[in-house]
Structures are given as C-alpha cells and as structure tokens.
Amino acid sequence: MAEGHKPTPEQKRRAVLTALAALEVALFGVDAWTAESLRAELTAPGRLVLVATSEVGAVVGYAVTMMVEDVADLLRIGVAEDHQRSGVASNLLAACLRAATADGVRRLLLEVSAANEGAINFYRAHQFVTIDRRRAYYRDGSDAVIME
Fold first, then answer.
1. Which among 142, 94, 85, 146 is positioned nearest to 120, based on CA atoms?
2. Deepest of 22, 23, 68, 136, by most Cβ within 10 A of its Cβ?
3. How many C-beta neighbours within 10 Å does residue 142 have?
4. How many whole angstroms from its chain centre is CA 116?
5. Dihedral sign (CA 128, 129, 134, 135)
6. Which 8-state DSSP code applies to residue 32?
C-alpha cells in the first residue's frame, strides 16, 4: 500500500481473515477450518468473533462463539504460539463469557481434543468441567471432551 493510504474496511477484513486462516492451520493442522469454512463460520447468524492483536496490530489470537437462545458454544479459541501463556486466551475467554452473559446465555459449552492436555487444563483452570465425550471425533482419531 502507498504510504499514507489507509486500508478500507474490506481490506482490513480480508487481512484479518488471511491471518486467522494462517493461525487455523498453525494451531489445528488437519482439523483447521479452510478459508471458506472460516469465512462462513465468522459470518453465520449468532456468531461472536473476537480478535486479539499485538501492539503493532498483528493478529495474535481469536475466539468464535455461537449463541442459540440461552446456550453458547465456544467454537474456537486460538493463540499464536509466540503469544501463548501470556494471558491472551484468558482475556479472550473472559470477553466471550461477558458477551454471552450480557446476551442472556446460561451455559457455555465447548469441545476439545482429549489429546490436548494443555487446553483441557486451561479450561479446568477457568472452572469448566467435563460433561461428556465423543469417541473418535477428530480426524486424527482422538476423542472430543465436552466441557461446560
């Protein structure tokens, strides 16, 4: 872009989508949402999308929830590897909970791979409890742990 030229809102949206798609691949591998499915998820009804940026404006994390009546599903939360364990995920989760509560949500559910012990421990530290399990849910064959 030419110096002094400000990006349009559409250019900003495309840049964020590109950054989120790259994070998806880096964080979720074979279970990553494609750019097309990511775009569809982010614009579907009832979605809340939060994006965390660094001091220089780089996308470093994101969270996506789907709200239906008084239940919300945390569809995604992810933080770039070089920003993990810095509070970004906790801040995103807290913001999701605040928004959901403000919208009348009484339950927040999520699914996480049983192989992802770090994420499970993160959610437990934030008072989530396991309520169910889906066998061989992910493409790698791991179970999904359902937490509330």
1. 146
2. 23
3. 17
4. 15
5. positive
6. P
Looking at this protein, which amino acid is placed at residue 33? Answer: W
Place of tokens 């809340």: 48
Q: What is the chain's pLDDT, residue by residue, as a tens digit (148 residues)? A: 455 678 898 898 889 999 999 999 999 888 899 989 999 988 899 999 999 999 999 999 999 999 999 999 999 999 999 999 999 999 999 999 999 999 999 999 999 999 999 999 999 999 999 999 999 998 889 999 999 9
Span between the terminal Cα atoms of the chain, in Å? 45
pTM of the model as a whole: 0.89
Q: Which of 26, 24, 20, 74 is nearest to 52 (CA)?
A: 20
* Residue 113, φ and ψ in degrees, nearest 5: -65, 135
Q: How far apart are CA 145 and CA 112, in angstroms?
A: 5
- Taking Cα atoms as reference points, which of 53, 58, 128 lies closest to residue 97? 128
Tokens of 39: 């775009």
